[in-house]
Structures are given as C-alpha cells and as structure tokens.
C-alpha cells in the first residue's frame, strides 16, 4: 500500500466529501435553520465556519482510528477471525475482544445515549 494521489481512491473520496458537505450545509434543515435565525450575515458565516471546522477534528479522529487498527493488525501478526470479513466489523471486534469490559461498555452505551437524546428532542 502506498500513498498515491493519482489513484482513483483519493479523488473519489475527495469529490464525495465535497459534494456531501455541500449538500449538508446547503440543504439540511437543522443547519439551514441556524443560518436563518442568525442576527446578521456575519453571525451566519461564523456559524457555518465553526461547524465546518469542527467536522475536521471528528473526521481526523475516525481516520486515525482506522489507520491505527490497520497498523495494529499488520504489525502484530494477529489474524482476524473469519467472521470479521468486512472493514466495518473490525472496530467492534477490537473493542469486544481487546479492551477492558468497562471501556467496551462505554462504547456500547455511547450510541444508545446519542440515540436517546436525539429521540427525546424529536430530531
């Protein structure tokens, strides 16, 4: 595996990200409402900028987790079991088999808590 900007993977993901965020920031009701309730255009621009900048650390964290898991399984020599046959199954397997029970429980409780808050607020 090598880093190559001429390959299809990088440009496909870059274009996908651009158009996904364009759609999200131009058409998502919750974000557009923030623009509309801003007192001035400057406040609306500030809200967009902060929202866009806060996406970057979250995106970088997800990419870092994936990269570290890839490096762990490449360098440790540990093989994934046959039932972990898709990339989106690696992280749950790692949490369930390599982390202490309390931390694994937090990883299981976080999505539920997020869903519960979202559900209770009616989003």
3D structure, described in words:
By secondary structure, the protein is mainly alpha-helical. It has two domains: 1-76, no CATH class; 80-123, no CATH class. It is built from five helices and no strands. It has helices at residues 8-27, 29-37, 41-76, 90-98, 101-121. Helix 2 packs antiparallel against helix 3. It is extended, with a radius of gyration of 19 Å.
Count of individual helical segments: 5
Could you tell me the radius of gyration in angstroms? 19 Å
Overall residue-averaged pLDDT value: 85
Instruction: Please bin the fraction of helical residues.
Output: over 70%
Main beta sheet, described? Answer: none
Sketch the topology as an H/E string, one letter per element: HHHHH
Helices and strands: which structural class? mainly alpha
User: Based on CA inertia axes, which overall geometry fits?
Assistant: extended
Q: How many domains, in number, for the residues? A: 2
Number of strands: 0
Beta fraction of the residues?
A: under 5%
Distance between the termini: 41 Å
- In the predicted model, the low-confidence regions spanning at least 5 consecutive residues are none
Task: Give a nutshell description of this structure.
It contains 5 helices and no strands. The protein is mainly α and 123 residues long.
């Amino acid at each position: 595996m090598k880093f190559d900007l001429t390959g299809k993977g990088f440009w496909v993901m870059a274009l996908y990200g651009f158009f996904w965020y364009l759609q999200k920031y131009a058409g998502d009701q919750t974000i557009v409402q923030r623009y509309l309730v801003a007192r001035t255009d400057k406040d609306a621009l500030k809200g967009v900028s902060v929202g866009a900048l806060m996406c970057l650390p979250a995106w970088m964290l997800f990419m870092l987790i994936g990269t570290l898991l890839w490096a762990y399984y490449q360098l440790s020599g540990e093989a994934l079991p046959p039932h972990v046959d898709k990339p989106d199954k690696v992280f749950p397997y790692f949490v369930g088999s390599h982390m202490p029970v309390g931390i694994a429980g937090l990883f299981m409780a976080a999505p539920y808590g997020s869903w519960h808050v979202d559900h209770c607020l009616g989003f």
